[in-house]
Amino acid sequence: MAKDDNGAEDVTAPDSPGEELAPVAASTAVVTRDSLVNPGFPPHRPRVTDLDHKEERKAERAVYTLFYVSIVGSVFAIAAYMAFPIVPEDPGSVRLNNLFIGLGLSLALLAIGIGAVHWGKALMSDHEGVDERHPVRGTEPVRARAVEIFQQANEESGFGRRTLIRNSLIGALVVFPLPAVVLFRGLGPMDQNPVELLHETMWKKGVRLTMDPSGTPIKASDVTLGSSFHVIPEGLSEMEHGRLEEKAKAAVLLIRMDPADLVESDERKTWSYQGIVAYSKICTHVGCPVALYEQHTHHLLCPCHQSQFDVENHCKVIFGPAKRALPQLPIAVDAEGYLIAQSDFTEPVGPSFWERA
Amino acid sequence: MTTIKTPRTRRPRKTGRRHPLASIALIAVGLLFTGGAYAAFSTSTAVATTDSSSQQTIAEGEKLFAANCATCHGLSAQGSAEGPSLIGVGAASVDFQVGTGRMPMQMQGPQAQKKPVQFTPEQITALAAYVASLAPGPAIPAAELLDAAAGDAANGAELFRINCAMCHNVAGAGGALTEGKFAPAIENVSAQHIYEAMITGPQNMPVFNDMNITPEDKRDIITYLKYVEDNPSPGGLALGSLGPVAEGLFIWIFGLGAIVALTVWITAKSN
């Protein structure tokens, strides 16, 4: 089918100097009055390599030199692999190894490419010609023959006649991908409801606020004015499995500011302790850790998309693409003076999701 | 013999050393010692180096303060509309702000910028001693806490990633904050200034007190920063360690530039 239907009757550009115009009978020739006239090619200009034998030799030399350079590059890459081995514990050796192998390989490939292009441009024949695309539609006999082939195949195979076989085959093909659905589902969490997982974190009543990464509990008196602590719930640093999954939801930033600077709503008056406030570190936009805290302006900046939150006003969004304030963790102090959570966050942390109420 | 006799005759005069003013001088010396000891004791929580807290250094610092800082911070460092109160900021804060050239401030702006230091080390010590004498505050750290060779770079790197890297960049190259403010690069900053910045929280940086990051952990952070400074990036050109911004710009300009140049060359006619 891929063979040329038009029997090599392809048209060439009328002004092409390489091909002669296809002969047209005088009776069918039409004088076109179209304003758009094929401008054809600019006059052919011979290259220096066509005119000057010396230049030709020079170009030839350049091409084979480039190919030899490529061989040198390949050998160099092999030598560099041996001369600059990667020494464990020494990052500097990785740098030398990568650098010299890379130089050798790029020399090897670039020299082949540049040599080939130079060969083609300077030495190969510079005949200029146009091969016009033949029409996509096949000739009538070819089209009729194609239909005939399909019909014959249908008859001989019985595909249209033995419908039971045909339909069962279609059924088998439809069912065949189903195991993949089960297999891929198995990669996700099996016995947990992801919606519930996104609603709750490790924080609950009485869980101590501890330092990231050591897990040392924090006393309220340790948090001096202007301090910011990066906080994880008690027990997270000792977790064996799923530590990062829990940390990604439970990470908290603890800040102490002058209580006079805090503007607190009535229902959240008891959520802070002497100017110490705790907010989720997970941005409500797409979940980057928001921790760029400015001590004087009391603004939190998310480095990913420049959302800004005002810690004085319950972390309301004051700039950027985030739509919701950062969730606040209600905190209190236990009998020993350590900071504890009053409860979990009262709303899901992080970015929006479909089932978020 | 007569020559020996003559000093003998003088002796009674010499043994009677108790000058009428001797007791007064003794009391004065005693008072001076007690006063000095008290001054040394009362400021020992604020200043680690004892010689910087001597009364003379403090007096020297007070003069320098009145001449260079009082315009904004007030004659007794109580603060004004132009500058904050310096009571209780401690010697470490003064050493950082003046020692990095941020103070005296050149002009009001989003934040004080690093510039050539305006004072000699002795003058900075005097200024620090004066401010520390006003009220207890963070002291200039002891030398053994600044020894980068003694720290654990891996622990420092983890703490730096958790507490510092979001503003200062994971390689300490600095980064932008809001409204013209920025977290400065920490390359080529002395260990003492790094330590002081952590305990005092200059400008918009939060404070990291010793309960948050222990003095040994602070030393580890310094070790990490010095390690990054001294060891070249294993990945080749660091391009300012700014990450995807600098690297993306580089590949856009030079990578795509090379492709465009090659394309033009391939399609151009040979002469």
Please explain how this structure is put together.
The complex is a heterodimer of chains A (357) and B (271). With 357 residues, chain A is of the alpha+beta class. Chain A folds into three domains: 48-122, no CATH class; 158-188, no CATH class; 197-341, Rieske [2Fe-2S] iron-sulphur domain (Rieske Iron-sulfur Protein, 3-layer Sandwich). Helices cover 34% and strands 11% of the residues of chain A. Chain A contains eight helices and ten strands. In chain A, the strands form three sheets. Chain A has a four-stranded antiparallel β-sheet. In chain A, helix 2 (53-83) packs antiparallel against helix 3 (91-122). The longest helix of chain A is centred in the N-terminal third of the chain and has 32 residues, at 91-122. Chain A is extended. Chain B is mainly α. Chain B folds into two domains: 30-134, Cytochrome Bc1 Complex, Chain D, domain 2; 143-250, Cytochrome Bc1 Complex, Chain D, domain 2 (Orthogonal Bundle), CATH 1.10.760. Chain B has eleven helices and two strands; from the N terminus they run ααααααααββααα. Chain B has helices at residues 2-15, 22-43, 55-68, 70-73, 90-99, 121-134, 153-163, 165-168, 191-200, 215-230, 244-267; strands spanning 175-176, 182-183. Chain B has a two-stranded antiparallel sheet with strand order 1-2. In chain B, helix 5 (90-99) packs antiparallel against helix 6 (121-134), helix 5 (90-99) packs across helix 9 (191-200) and helix 7 crosses helix 10. The radius of gyration of chain B is 29 Å and the shape is elongated. At the A-B interface, helix 3, strand 2 and strand 5 of A face helix 7 of B.
